[in-house]
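Practice problem: predict the structure.
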Amino acid sequence: MSTRQETACRCLDLEWATRRGLLTVASVVGMGLVADIIPALAEPTSERPKEDDFLVSIESDTTDALAPKDIPVGGPPVLAWPMDPAGNTVRKGSRLNKILLVRLDPSTLVGVTKERAAEGVVAYSAICPHAGCEVNVWVTEQQILECSCHFSHYNPREAAAVIDGPTSRALAALALKIVDGKLAVAKPFTGRVGIVPS
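Answer:
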């Protein structure tokens, strides 16, 4: 092998070693970033509602779980947070955990909504999937939910199906059950909460 070829091989070895070193450093730094991000995502107050979580009123200073009787029949909805019953940790670290609770006549509930309801109480994400605004209006006459940002309307009796407006998706639903007379989560949200990137 000529001197010129040996020099070229050493340069390639050095380049390979440098690239490998950079990749190693990048992966270690990346692992550090992931280690910083994962605990933040795993914060109990930010975790999505889990099975057996109780529901507590957003407007309450206590961690008293809501019962069906606490939700007015025919609306308006009550805003709630999920709460881990083991440590009374209220999962209010993410606005995506805001839940709308509406109590309706069980005989008016359609399809899977009947199965997800507990004593006529249905639960939906309070975050509109169109632009991430809060669904914060109750249209009493029709007993429907409205997002005041762009006026999407949802039917709470039929899995929060879209009635009209710019949204293309129903609100994510949360199946409920009764535990010791209180409202509790039976299953996680039926779909992604909030905006779905296009």
